[in-house]
Each structure stands twice: as C-alpha cells, then as structure tokens.
Design brief:
Elements lengths: L2 H19 L7 E5 L5 H9 L4 E4 L2 H7 L9 E4 L8 H7 L2 E5 L2 H9 L8 E7 L15 H8 L5 E8 L11 H16 L5 E7 L6 H6 L4 E4 L1 H4 L3
Parallel strand pairs: 1-2, 1-8, 2-3, 3-4, 4-5, 5-6, 6-7
The chain binds pyridoxal-5'-phosphate (PLP).
C-alpha cells in the first residue's frame, strides 16, 4: 500500500466511525504523527492532502523542519516537553498537546511574554495512572485547568490522553469516555480562560473507538506511515 492509499483508508475509517456515532467528519481532525518519519514522506503526505502533523521531540523537529519550511502545515507537539525547551517548542509548534504542570506552563508563558502570541494547549491526563507516562491524574486536572487559564499567552482548548495499551480497542473505550466526562465536568465549571472543546485521543490502534467517544483530534502514525 502506498502512503496515499494509507491516508485514504484512514480517512474512510474516520468517516465511517463518525457515521456510527452520528458525528460530522469535519469535526475530527486527523493529525499525522511523523516522528521518525523522514521529511520526504511528510512532504508526500502533505501532497496527498494532510495539513496537520505531530512530533514528539524538539531535536527531531529542529532537524527536519528546514527541509519543509515551504509547506503550509500546522505542527503539533504531542510529547512530553522539558521546561528548558519551552522556547524552541513555541518557535517550532502551533499546538501543544501535553501540558501537565504549572511549572511548564510558567516556562511557556515566560518565553512568550510581550510577543502577543497565544499557543493553543491541551492538558495531558494520565488516566491509567501509569508511572512511566507523563500527564496529571484525573483528580488533578481541574486544578491545573484553573491555573493554566490564568496565563495570557496560553490558550487552553481541552484535554489529551495516551491510555494504557490493550490489544482489543474496546478495552480502551472506558478511558476515552472518562476523558470526555472530565472535559464536560471542567467545561461546566466555566473557569475563566478555559475551553474544553478539544479531545485529543485515539491512535492507529484505537482511533475509531476514540471517535465514537467524542475525539476531536486523532493522532495517527503507524496506520499512515507504516511501522516505525
Ligand atoms: C507515536 C504517537 C502517536 C501515534 O501512534 P501510532 O500508534 O503510530 O498511531 C500518537 N500520540 C502520541 C503522543 C505518540 O507519541
């Protein structure tokens, strides 16, 4: 299968999942996760119509980006960020999906004070409470939302999760549902500066279930670019 076929197939599956859930396909953004993928393949995916790409490492993004500077695409940082990389992160990316501490929010704010720029951010929630994964616990996310809502250069848009891995995507469904319920509860609190419109959840293995549970952004690597 070519890259173009893979993309078409993923798009069909998104449309079908939206159909099952009574949702509109235009309300689900496909983010192609291009970590470890060479710049030429990203260009090819862009030529096939994709406009959103996600990476998880600052250094890798810095290395690949010069070869892609002519493309008009939206870049998403989907992985954990060290506070000392806040400046390059803001320079290289248009969205940040993995905000998980006030300290990191302070760094991201500090490097952009006075620029007038606002970075759309999502809070990463570690729903499985897995020690090896980043993210705040479900019972901490409301407090973090309240704090992040106070930073003028950060535009809080919703939540993101990377749930525990299961072979059967049905077993992930409760985690996706939980993320949606958390977002709904925080939205109902009407905190200043806080929007909970976006749910970044679902990867190659389980994106259809995530869409059925309300994902507005799916992050797909392997099903587009092949195994890493
Ligand atoms: C790698 C990665 C993905 C994509 O995973 P696939 O299983 O290849 O689709 C999604 N989200 C994050 C945060 C990732 O690091």
């Amino acid at each position: 299968m070519s890259l173009k076929d893979n993309i078409a197939r993923v798009q069909e599956r998104i449309v079908a999942a939206c159909g099952r859930a009574g949702r509109r396909p235009e309300d689900v953004k496909l983010i192609a996760i291009s970590k470890t993928v060479p710049a030429e393949s990203i260009r090819e995916a862009c030529e096939a119509g994709l406009r959103d790409f996600g990476e998880n490492r600052i250094q890798e993004a810095q290395a690949k980006r010069p070869a892609l500077s002519d493309l008009t695409v939206t870049w998403h940082l989907v992985g954990h960020l060290q506070p000392n990389k806040a400046k390059p992160a803001r320079e290289l990316f248009h969205w940040f999906h993995a905000l998980d501490s006030v300290r990191l929010a302070e760094r991201l704010e500090h490097v952009a004070v006075g620029t007038g720029e606002r970075l759309p951010v999502l809070l990463e929630v570690n729903l499985g409470q897995e020690p090896a994964k980043a993210g705040v616990r479900g019972d901490e996310v409301r407090n973090l939302a309240e704090e992040v809502g106070r930073f003028p250069t950060l535009d809080l848009r919703g939540l993101m999760t990377l749930p525990p891995f299961f072979d059967d995507p049905e077993q992930v469904r409760p985690y996706f549902r939980r993320l949606r319920e958390l977002a709904e509860a925080i939205a109902a609190a009407r905190l200043p500066g806080v929007s909970m419109r976006e749910l970044s959840m679902g990867m190659s293995q389980d994106f259809e279930v995530a869409i059925e549970e309300g994902a507005t952004m799916v992050r797909i690597g392997t099903a587009i670019f092949g195994p890493r």
